[in-house]
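Changelog-adjacent note: as of this version, every example in the card shows the full chain rather than a window. The one below runs 437 residues end to end.
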Amino acid sequence: MMKKFLYIILFFIFLYPAHSLELTDIESTLADIFSSSIDPNEGNTVFRSLNIPSGGRTEALGTAFTALSDDISFFDYNPAASAILSNSELAVYHNAWISDSALETLAFTRRDGNLGYGTQLKCFYVPFTEYNLYGDRVAGSYYSETSLTFNTAYNFLSGYNFRGIAVGANAKVSWRSIPDYTDNRDDSIISGSGLEQSALGLMADAGAIVRFNFLKLYQDRNPNFKAGLALNNFGIALTGFGSSIKKDDDTPARLSAGFSYRIYPRLLFTSEIRKPILLSDFSSSGKLSFCTGIEVNATETFAFQLGFLLQGANPRFSLGSEFDIRGIKMDIAYTLDLTSSANPVNHISLSAKISFGDRGRKAAMEKVDEYYIEGLKLYAFGDYDAAILKWDEAIAIASSSPLNMKFEPAILARDAAINFNKQKNELENLYSISFKD
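Full-length structure tokens:
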């Protein structure tokens, strides 16, 4: 049954392209519905490739990832996530974007206790060809935007009942490369002309994530609700490296806020809103955008996603799946844009995520549970001192690496046992004094 379902998904992604559909009426209807969302301030920033999703699962979820951020795709959405990820991960992404352009991404992240860190390299490129007045090709290369991101995050107040507040930041450097072009008079390439219009961007991101249980309808140790807030791409862009360096247009800064809610263990809903911010003139900032996504885990090794993104008058619909192949998570996403042109724009993105384990966190948590349960058994048989020792062991393991968390169940149990022992000793002393009298 699952194989048949997977074949259906792949059929719609690969064998049933959007241009084969009769979408004229749909496009017209959507254009009317979203016409009021047209943003007159769109396109006032540089390094627009920073708004292109790397692809895979995040794009299939409509890019609603600021709060969810539960895998290595967090770099472009919320830098706080590296402090709370379960595993160290390495990932590669390929997004076949529109108009023969593409985005390639390589990322790595690791977590030690409550400290997370990582790095990501992204490269967006599109063929650049120049023709003269006679239609002859006189220059050709690639226009590209390359970004390198360094991340660090920490999860404060981490515990068993309250999982803490994760806070993180990215430092980002981007380079826009424009190839040299020609002098229209004699078709000769002007040396340094591309460098003159190339640009350097220096930016930073900041974010926070909080996790807790909310309207939880099932039994599970992990919190089912996340709330996230992030500031992305705040910085400056410089151009004119061929002669005099000057400030370029604004970077694509934005403020994002969202939540994710796991309704059942295999059903996830995520949503967020974003506000573009034009740093040089806040009043000219773009309109709010909205995105949302749903993920269904059909099995332990296969999930599929549906997503929707509305940015300006430009709705995008996404469909994707994630499946595990010998420990490597593979993602494929198909995105359909119905209103940006006369012909629907659609593209496919792929990703592969390799896990390097959790650095012993699961094994340590199992040991904590073992000591905690042993303590409960000893307490039930009246051996309070031995129970306290077991709970002390559980507390010590939980508070040290690789967990670095407060294990409140053992702390409360130990305190109750110590208090009970104290009262018991006081009663025995009173009884002894009374007997002597």
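Structural remarks: Residues 1-24 have pLDDT under 50 and may be disordered.
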